[in-house]
User: Fold this.
Amino acid sequence: MPVWLSVTLLVVLALLGLWGMRRGWRARARRSAALVPTLPDVPDVPGDGRTEPVEAVYVSSTRAGDWLDRVVAHDLGVRSAARVRVHAGGIHVARTGARDVWVPAAALTAVGTSSGQAGKFVGRDELVVLTWLPDPAGSPLDTALLVRHDDERAALLAAARTLAAPTDTDTAPSAAQEEQA
Assistant:
């Protein structure tokens, strides 16, 4: 087989592979648009800052509880550098090269850590995971952030947890409180 034919065949195969990946990404975007019909806009006045901006990497957003089901609608599938800041009204994830994400305090249901999510896996629980409901007509999401400086992770977690809606275990009185009553 002549060299030019081999090269042409490889180029055609590479182009077919790229076309298939692009088609798959677009199909995933259509499917995930049903999960997240709209995203909240970043408000002009987000409230008092509870933290300084924290450098992080926006890893991905997935359906809550399914760490491999990446949501790509509304640029949520784009991994990017970010600056995260907790405000009284919510959490602002200012991303480079993609749409900013605003997590309203009322939509935030849980804040935790994980060792991995679609797009990134680390040795220990280094990912900060925000569980929130961006649209009442949609599904809850887990949004993962990898904080660049380890010493800033605890402050971000603590500030974000003050915004999360209390769960039944947060509002239920402890045994010691019941004894005092």
In short: The helical segments are 3-35, 150-163, 168-171, 175-180. The longest helix spans residues 3-35.
